[in-house]
Design a protein that fits this description.
Blueprint (H helix, E strand, L loop, with lengths): L1 H14 L14 E7 L2 E6 L2 E5 L7 E2 L12 E2 L9 H7 L5 E3 L5 H4 L2 H8 L2 E4 L1 H9 L7 E3 L5 E3 L4 E7 L4 H4 L25 E8 L2 E5 L7 H4 L6 E5 L10 H8 L5 E5 L13 H18 L4 E2 L7 E4 L1
Parallel strand pairs: 3-6, 4-5, 6-7, 7-8, 12-13, 13-14, 14-15
Antiparallel strand pairs: 1-2, 1-16, 2-3, 9-10, 10-11, 11-12
Length: 309
């Protein structure tokens, strides 16, 4: 009789778990793998989220090419070609793909990944129209404008209006968008920005603020309290007034700060990133230390897993 009562209690516990929480026995830890550029694989139990998954790392008309890189050299007028071998090796599953903007180093591998995984894709009108050009169906696409706060049950996401990095010493500006579906395949130069977002993604027990570049609109992030910040870290942040101080202050000094978009993404994964770490990441760490003692910086390595409990 006692065993029957305990069984009924156990069934009631399982049945009345709150909606939006992981089931009993699942872990709250996040596993993050850096793909280079602004690309990430984020996993919590069986849930897999991709951010700007760019893995092809094409050799794009480098000013100072590495003599050891014998691959084909591309120019921006060439048609983009995904490295499907690398993608198949690293991407096995995806439930969601969040795209910050539509440049080739953020979006160009997504058509192949979207067909491979069937993932839900969240992005701008330009992002979605480019994906439609490659045959991605509307039921996979979530076209957003900024300001949305969507509940997908296994996670929720706030879409935050943002602006692109201040490239070419503040001379960057590109107002081009795709309001209609372009012709595919696209040339590398045809992957236009098309507007920029940040995302506040709420996982179980963790809230992550993501960046796809080295700029932000302070009023849009002021008062957010992520415990994890993927902070854009590249030279163009130096064009922004008190970039690191304002970013950390506006977001209430996140417990964990992880640099993103700092690597040289024109060379293969196995090539050294020592120079990028020394010239981009190390100064950023010093800026964080000068601003707060509350935030810990974790420097990612390509394709290595960071575990956050």
């Amino acid at each position: 009789m006692k065993n029957i009562i305990l069984s009924k209690v156990w069934l009631l516990f399982l049945f009345f778990q709150p909606i939006g929480f992981s089931s009993y026995g699942q872990s709250a830890k996040l596993e993050l793998r850096y793909l280079g550029a602004a690309g990430w694989i984020i996993q919590q139990d069986t849930l897999v989220v991709l951010l700007d998954p760019y893995l092809s790392r094409i050799k794009l008309d480098p000013t100072n090419p590495d003599a050891n890189d014998k691959r084909k050299t591309y120019v921006r007028s060439d048609y983009f070609e995904s490295d499907t071998v690398v993608i198949d090796r690293e991407i096995k599953k995806a439930d969601y793909i969040f795209i910050h903007h539509s440049h080739f180093d953020h979006l160009s591998d997504v058509p192949y990944i979207a067909k491979k995984t069937g993932a839900k894709i969240i992005g701008t009108e330009t992002t979605c129209n480019i994906l439609r050009a490659y045959g991605i169906k509307d039921d996979q696409l979530y076209e957003v404008k900024g300001g949305e706060d969507y509940d997908f049950k296994d996670l929720s996401v706030m879409v935050i209006p943002s602006i692109h990095s201040a490239l070419r010493f503040k001379h960057y500006f590109d107002s081009r968008v795709y309001t209609e579906v372009p012709a595919a395949p696209l040339k590398i130069a045809d992957f236009v920005e098309g507007g920029s977002f940040m995302y506040l993604i709420r996982f179980k027990n963790h809230t992550m603020l993501t960046m796809g570049g080295m700029n932000y609109i302070e009023r849009e992030i002021n008062g957010l309290k992520p415990d994890i910040l993927l902070a854009g870290v590249n030279f163009s942040r130096n064009e922004i007034y008190k970039y690191t101080e304002r970013l950390l202050t506006a977001t209430n000094y996140p417990k964990i700060v992880i640099p993103t978009h700092w690597d040289d993404f024109r060379v293969p994964y196995e090539f050294s990133q020592k120079k990028s770490v020394e010239t981009k990441v190390t100064p950023f760490i010093q800026e964080v230390k000068a601003t707060t003692t509350k935030s810990r910086v974790i420097v990612p390595e390509h394709l290595k897993t960071i575990v956050i409990e």
